Sequence to fold (396 residues):
Amino acid sequence: MDYTRVITNLFTPAFGLLFIFIFLTMNSSMEGRIKRLFYIAVGISAFETIVSEIEMWTETFSHSTMLRNVTDHLGYMDRPFILYTILLIVMREDKNKRKKCIYVIPALINVVLCLISIFNGMIVNYSESNVVSRGSLGFVPYVISGIYLIIIFVYTIMNVTKERRNELIIISAIMIMLGFTIALIALFRLRQIFSSALALSLIFYYIYFQIDHSRKEYEEKARVAKARAEKDALTGIRNRGAGEADINDILKDKSSGIFGMFDCDKFKLINEEFGHDTGDRVLIAVADTMTQSFRGHDVVMRLSSDEFAFFLRGITDYKVAKLCLDRFMTAISEIKLDIIDNKPVTISMGAVLYDGSYETSFEELFKRADDELFYMKKMGRNNYRINQDKPKPEKK
Fold:
C-alpha cells in the first residue's frame, strides 16, 4: 500500500474540513439553520473522504472484495447529497418547502440505483481480478451530479440581487471547479481529487459567508448608529440636525410644501406644576400625534425643549394647507393625559407656504415661520397663522 499517496490525498480535504468544523463551532453569529447545513455538508464530505480512501486501499488488492464494491457505491451515493446541501444553503431565503423536497428526488433516485447496483453491477462492477468496469448505467451518478450543478447555478442567477452579486461569482467558481472535477472522475476515475475539490469549495463558500456576514453586521451597526444620531432621544422623531438636513435636501430640488413650527403653550407651567417627567410625557404625546397626523414622507422634527417643526411635501394650496393644520390642531386638542389631570394641551404655530418657484433654505423658512409664531403668541395662543407671501427680493 502506498502510504505516501494516502497521506497526500487525505491532507487537503481532512485539514480543510477540520478548518471549517472548528470555525463553525467557534462562530456564534451565524444563523443556526445555515450553520446546521454547513455541518451536514462537512459531515458528508468527511464521509466521502473516508470512503474514497478505503476504496483506493481496496483497489490494491489482487482480488475483488465486497468492501470495495460497497465503498465505491457509497461514494456515488453521497456526491449528489453534498451538492443538494450546497443548494439548500444557496436557497436559504426561499420559503418554498415543496420546491426543496422536489430537488432532493434526483439524489434519492441515485441512492436506489446505487443500492441495486451493489448486487447487479449496473453502475459499476468488478472482475475476480479486481478490475473495475462501468455498467450500463455507469454515467447516471455523474449526470445527476451535473443536474445539481446546473440547478445551483441557474437558481443563483435567477435569484441574484444587488446584495448577493458577489455570491454569484463564488458559486460560479465553485460550480466550474466541481463540474471539471466530476468530468475527470467520470472519464479517468480520478476519484481522489473530488474530496480535495469539495473541501476547497466549502472553504471558499464559508469564507464568503463570513465576509458577507461581517459586512452586513458593520452596515447594520452603522445604520443603527446613524439612526440614533438622527433621532431625538426622548420622542423618537428626527432631531434638529437630521430634520434640517432633510428639509434642505428637499428645498434644493425646489420641492413645494408647507413648513411649520410650533411650541406647547405654557409648557413651563406644566413642568413647574407636575414635574419634568410629566412634561416629557406631554412632549412624547405631541410627537406621536405629529407622526400619526402627517404622512410617512413628510418631515417631522423636534427643535428643542417644547419646540417642534415639520415640512409637509407637495402642499401649495392655502385651503389644503389650512385643512391639514386644522386637523392637526384638533388632534393636539384631543390629547388626554391623566398625569396632568386631563387638562388640554394646546400649541401656537407659525407656517409658511412654499411653492418651489424660488430658492430658499431651512433657515429662511424658519425665520419666516418664527415671525408668524411670535405674532400668534401676541394674539392669544392656541392658534396658527400661515404666511403665503413670497419673500421680497433684497434691495441692491
